[in-house]
Design goal:
It is built from 3 helices and 9 strands. The protein has helices at about 10-40, 50-120, 195-200, and strands at about 140-145, 150-155, 155-160, 175-180, 180-190, 205-210, 220-225, 230-240, 245-250. Strands 1, 2, 3, 4, 5, 6, 7, 8 and 9 form a 9-stranded antiparallel sheet that branches. The chain is rod-shaped and about 125 Å long. The N and C termini lie far apart (about 140 Å).
């Protein structure tokens, strides 16, 4: 017995009757799984008709698209805000760098002022009066001088050629030192009183050490520096307990 095939019109009618239901069922299964993962049911309770379910899905999709658009707008606004904040940050950093440069420049000026201005002699070239603890000789061509005694600790040397505020105080040998054996230097001479520049430059005998037991408050010394400048050192104070010596200093410019 021959099996008769269903006429095409009958097959098309079957698909026509069931295609909507099949598609709806597939979409419902897929979106139902997604909705379950979200922890909610996308289908409205009580809706069993596939057409109604598709309409509900379309509404939900439109809602999600609208929400997604709002999120895009918010993300764009946040990116714009971030760009604005970054520009402000860059501007602040540039201003901060300018302030750092200005601060460095002012510190350099202050350091130069301390070295060249604070200890510089008067215009008439007169050194401080000896009654006040300084030199009393009338001098000219002063490179720098102290306004108050410079205290030197044991094992410390001064660089009389420098213009730094602390006279280059260090523990390495320099122009004028205070060590275990006394006051030391490359060329020292003890004077009977406060000398002039000419007095110091006229000296022909020099020594390198003034022994500790000979170092005394009020002592006057001529000194020649490593850079061949002439200097005068007055011992303003000696403290054996603290192991310190204080000097009034005058350094003349090179001839």
């Amino acid at each position: 017995m021959d099996t008769q095939e269903s006429p095409p019109s009958r097959r098309a009618g079957w698909f026509g009757q069931h295609s909507v239901a099949v598609v709806a069922a597939v979409v419902a299964a897929v979106l139902g799984g997604v909705a379950t993962a979200w922890g909610e049911n996308l289908f409205t309770p009580g809706t069993s008709d596939s057409g109604e379910q598709v309409q509900v899905l379309e509404v939900r999709i439109k809602d999600l698209e609208a929400a997604n658009g709002l999120l895009d707008d918010e993300a764009t606004a946040l990116r714009d805000q971030n760009d604005s904040r970054q520009a402000e940050l860059d501007d602040l950093e540039a201003q901060n760098q300018e302030l750092r440069e200005e601060n460095r420049r002012l510190r350099d000026q202050a350091s130069a002022g301390d070295g060249a201005g604070t200890d510089t002699g008067t215009d008439d070239g007169a050194a401080p009066d000896d009654s006040g603890g300084g030199a009393s000789a009338v001098v000219s061509g002063i490179r720098r001088e102290t306004n108050a005694p410079v205290q030197v600790m044991l094992h410390t040397c001064l660089d009389l050629d420098t213009t730094s505020a602390n006279w280059g105080a260090a523990s390495v040998p320099q122009d004028l030192c205070y060590g275990d054996v006394g006051v030391e230097g490359a060329r020292l001479t003890i004077m009977s009183g406060a000398p002039s520049r000419a007095d110091c430059e006229a000296q022909t005998t020099w020594q390198q050490t003034i022994a500790t037991d000979a170092v005394a408050e009020g002592m006057h010394l001529c000194v020649q520096t490593n850079e061949r400048r002439t200097a005068y050192a007055h011992i303003a104070a000696v403290n054996g307990d603290a192991e310190t010596v204080a000097f009034d200093l005058v350094v003349w410019e090179s001839s």
